[in-house]
Amino acid sequence: MALVMTGLTPFKTLNVADPVYVALDAAGPGLVWLKYLTTIGAIAGLASVVLVMLMGQPRIFYAMSRDGLLPELFSSVHPRFKTPYLATIITGLVAAVVAGAFPIGLLGELVSIGTLLAFVIVCAGILVLRYTQPNLVRPFRTPFVPFVPAGGVLVCGWLMWNLPHDTWLRLIIWMVIGLVIYFTYGRFHSKLQQPAQR
């Protein structure tokens, strides 16, 4: 895709929000029909990403609630559909308010830095666990340790480093909020802190 786009137009013109559209526009009238399909594809792609996130986040809240890190409200399962319906409703409402109140570029940067941080933590966790608990039962094993996880930490860390400073500030604020929730609620209700009751 990158080769085709840079073949249609110089790469310096592609540093915009809609590079595919710019490349197709530079191709001339022969590919005008493809611009409409590209627009439809972009809308469908954005919608699918939003839906996947709206399905994934409630399940993360559900797992955290089952572990005692969030209130039991988030682990309520619908009697008929067997899904974490209250967590889904709350996540959907918060996402709708945030999407309506903030620019999409800002939200994209927040999602990017949050996802990259999660990848960095997972990759670092693989390295730590492989050396601190080598005999731990692992249903899935990462190949080529330590190269793959170390590469993941470096690449994702570099991508995070290149995000704007304001995005880093917002990440720090969200982490502080998360730490406050953990130290005021999760730490005292965690199932790991109460092994006798498990």
Summarize this entry quickly.
With 198 residues, this protein is mainly alpha-helical. The chain has seven helices and no strands.
Q: How large is the count of helical segments? A: 7
What average pLDDT do the residues reach?
Answer: 87
What is Rg? Answer: 22 Å
Please indicate the count of domains: 2
Distance between the termini: 52 Å
Question: How many strand segments?
Answer: 0
Assign a percent range to the helix content.
55-70%
* Unreliable residue stretches: none
For the sheet with most strands, the description reads: none
| Coarse shape | globular
- Estimate what percentage of residues fall within beta strands: under 5%
Specify the structural class. Answer: mainly alpha
H/E topology pattern: HHHHHHH
What does this structure look like?
This protein has helices spanning 2-8, 19-26, 32-66, 85-101, 104-132, 147-161, 165-189. It is mostly helical and 198 residues long. The chain has two domains: 1-101, no CATH class; 103-198, no CATH class. Helix 2 (19-26) runs antiparallel to helix 3 (32-66), helix 3 (32-66) packs across helix 4 (85-101) and helix 5 crosses helix 7. The longest helix has 35 residues, at 32-66. It is globular, with a radius of gyration of 22 Å.
